[in-house]
Amino acid sequence: MEIKAEKIKPYDPSAPKTGQVERMFDSIAPAYDLMNRAMTLGIDHLWRARAVREVAARKPREILDVATGTGDLAIRLARAAVGSRVTGIDLSEGMLDIGRSKVAEAGLADRVTFAKADCLALPYPDASFDAVTVAYGVRNFEHLDRGYSEMARVLRPGGMLCVIELSTPDGRLTRPLYDLYTLRVIPALGRLVASDKSAYTYLPASIAAMPQGEDMLRLMTDAGLSEPRLRRMTFGACTIYTAVKRH
Fold it and tell me: So what's the pLDDT on residue 194?
């Protein structure tokens, strides 16, 4: 499967994507949480809450949150999955520094830890985690199939992978509004709030280029995962994908 999102890059089309993603998130880290709320009109917390309920229902003890960013999902998982330990990884130290402050403020430093790491070469042994999550991050993977294979590798048998990703509505009424918002409003917000128009021009382009729906589920099964499922949220603006490791 050709994955067009791998060719969408924040700054330089000819340079490797991973380093550009790190640079981009270091640049926008101070404004990231505010931009998330503004871009989704605050609905992103509902999408995270739905995913957290699904993961927590399996009572995981060890959770890996890939592309953890400023730690919102990691903190929610720790609160919902009683007794769990959550490890969050990200390329961006700027994002992780904000996440560490939020974890300390939440009183969860004994259960949530962060590390700088690349999702394409996870520094953990096989079968280390009961659940792996990634929120709004897979579109930033330089090699999507390798990222899925790595996440599957570190899952224990019976463990769940849960991916939250922005997606493109296809309704006759919702699609024109979505296009106007993502192609015009979001880049303008990025220029005003984050002082990085390129980062927020990259965002809608990367969403549009991502495999969605059944194509995303196929990437999960190709990585050796079973029971792939998807749930579309808010008229298709977000999709939650899950799968289970059976062996």
Answer: 64
